[in-house]
Amino acid sequence: MAIHVVGLGIDPDTLPEIHEQIITTADVLVGGKRQLEAFVDLDVETIPVTAPLSDVFAAMAASYNARKEVVVIADGDPLFFGIGERIIKEFGSENVVVHPNTATVQAIASRANISWQNMRMLSLHGRNDYTPLYTALMQHDHITVLTDDTNIPAVIAQRLLDRGVTWFNIGIFENMGTDEEQISDCTLEEASNRSFSKLNAVLLERTGQPEQPLRIGIPDSQFATERKLITKRPVRSASLGVLELEPHHTMWDIGAGSGSVSIEAAHLLSKGAVYAVERKSKRVALIRQNRARFGAVNMDVLHGDALECIKDLPTPDRIFIGGGLGSNTTLLAPLCERLQCNGIIVVNSTLLSSLEAAKNHFKTIGWEYDVTMIQAAASRPLADDIRLDSMNPIFIISARKPVPEKQSD
Fold first, then answer.
1. Strand partners, 173
2. Which residues form the Tetrapyrrole methylase domain (predicted)?
């Protein structure tokens, strides 16, 4: 005897015969309010799926242990952002049988006449983390998104517009599989000002590219800057190397300036996010301009005092301080405290006093650190040849937060 999890596809009225037979012979039917309403004529005990799920699972277990035939119904395919995985984890794979059906993404692909094997599929249903969507926009041409009452098409469109995205259009698929089905193809601007049916999903389709490709080693001249103040390309590359970024990491860039380090870091953080913090409004505008220019969509820009801005940010795996430390290490203590254990903090400095201040701070808190000095030179035309212009030497101080030793019993 097993718990059956049945996918309803996009239209419960067109169920395969075996699916319908399993549902109509159930003793207990489990599903959301809308799914249960489709089978209101059945003389069957029902368990509505509501929060917390622990109560739902307890009721299911009681029925299952009483040898009742328990059937769970779910929209689309139960194992595509559905309840199927949770039920398998709760009751064990050997006690669950899943009956698949057409997933929403398949229906969207067929309506839009596009293949879906390379499509990125995401769900914002019950979620508030947009990072997977932002990184998907940087890597894919088609992204389908399952929505909810909070993450509606207008909100999604506005989120992307706020990050300077202009190279995607959005398709809204409403009431799929019903007589009220409707498909709207919109620009992000249009969608941000429209209302749609509560039952919808969206397809984001690439229509172009950012102004410049996002990559490592971007020429300094391609960034919008204030008086050419920027972490120069050789130093930027070295700093990113010392940060040892991994794809899933969260990085803070404190005193982001033009945002050049954040933008190239965004390219490396293919599953992660970077938060660029800057207190000067003119530089914040430049960072946003550069973010849009290079399509660094997974980059958040925060305007204000660093200590205030970081209060509600997710715990960082990496922290970069590119400027503004001076000889005052007041900022270092709270940053080091927030850093993930085994995380890395990197401080760039042109002043010996800043170098000494950072070294002394890391010594005081017992962290091992390394110092690298970069003194690069760039070619300039001279007569029929070139000469080399030296750049200011930059000290790169890096430290790793120790992992606390486990206490022995």
1. 183, 201
2. 3-191
Domain boundaries, the chain: 3-102, 105-206, 220-400
Confirm if 274 and 251 have CB atoms less than 8 A apart. Answer: yes
Q: Report the SS3 class of residue 184.
A: strand
Q: Which residue is associated with the tokens 């328990």? A: 70
**What DSSP designation does 31 have?**
E
- Domain spanning 105-206: which CATH class is it, in words? alpha beta
For residue 259, pLDDT over 90 is answered with yes
CA distances from 23 to 132, 173, 310 (A): 35, 27, 51
How many other CB atoms are there within 10 angstroms of residue 335's CB atom? 19
The predicted model gives 38-56 an average pLDDT of 94
CATH topology of domain 220-400: Rossmann fold (3.40.50)
Q: Do domains 3-102 and 220-400 have the same CATH topology?
A: no
Torsions phi, psi for 4 (to 5 deg): -100, 130
- pLDDT above 90 covers a percentage of the chain that reads 89
Q: How sure is the predictor about 324, in pLDDT bands with cuts at 50, 70 and 90?
A: low
Residues with Cβ < 8 Å from 261, sequence gap 6 or more? 231, 236, 239, 240, 253, 320, 322
